Amino acid sequence: MDDGAATESIITAALSTLPPSQLVSLSFSLFSTFHRHHRRLSSLLSSPTLFSHTLNHLYSLPLQKKSLLIARHLLSTLHLLTPFFPPHSATPFSASISRRDLDAALLLLLFCEIRQHDPKLLEASPPADWHRVLTKYFFETLLSLSGIKTGPSEVLGCFIEILVKCKRLAGAAGCRGGKARRDVPASAAVVVAPLPSVEVGSGGSGECVICREEMAEGREACELPCGHLFHWSCVLRWLTNRNTCPCCRLRLPSDDVSGEIDRLLEGLVRVGRSQLNGDQCI
Ligand SMILES: [Zn+2]
Ligand SMILES: [Zn+2]
């Protein structure tokens, strides 16, 4: 089984753990999101002025910014999962992206879809003709585009495809040349400020695994969402370079879009693997 197919079966297994009422609720929120994107793309193509503004905006973005735009768009779709598979901590990125960025992302995805579907179509047309080509393609493939499907199972199928794309994107951004996943700093705004301070109880709390020194009774320690305690000075230094707990590797929010996609998917993959292994203890 290739990576994509393996990810697909893990995600399907994770979704199958949801009770029917939640699955219906997820399908409904997916359907309305896809439908909103579809309507937005439709108005974008129906207005030559808006189309040319969006295209100029895309032209002005360097390749790295374009990738970031797509990643932000995928992350906003991934957010739809959080009521059903909540991560330990909220992501620092807002679930919604600006209208201009949404337009640019939708147009870029349409370009990508056309390139995949018929690579010669755009090459054979001068840029002045792209509006006509894109509009024709969009309206001809109306029912198969952007998740506009007829039933909930088709919407879920489309969502699983998006999640597989997210996983691939996060994997590509996280690993370089097959090396281990890169470290990203924890988000200062979201992680550091709300971390609770707890007083180390009687008998101490064992050693802080970062400095290997005992945490003395009565001293204030920092508690990560997983419950592990560390000296404040040690953990703050640690989180400026990494967004994982030094004990259990729990991933904390970061200001890195790919890191956030990876973190949100991790919880889902854990549930899916557990379901596939027949292990109900997650
Ligand atoms: Zn320490
Ligand atoms: Zn931990």
From TrEMBL:
SUPFAM superfamilies: RING/U-box. This is RING-type domain-containing protein. It holds the Pfam family zf-RING_2. PANTHER family: E3 UBIQUITIN-PROTEIN LIGASE SGR9, AMYLOPLASTIC, RING FINGER AND PROTEASE ASSOCIATED DOMAIN-CONTAINING. GO terms for biological process: ubiquitin-dependent protein catabolic process. The lineage of its organism: Eukaryota, Viridiplantae, Streptophyta, Embryophyta, Tracheophyta. PROSITE patterns: ZF_RING_2. InterPro entries: E3_ubiquitin-ligase_domain, Znf_RING, Znf_RING/FYVE/PHD. Residues 208-249 form the RING-type domain. One of its GO terms (molecular function) is ubiquitin protein ligase activity. The keyword Zinc applies. It comes from Nepenthes gracilis (Slender pitcher plant). Keywords: Metal-binding, Zinc, Zinc-finger. It comes from the Eukaryota.
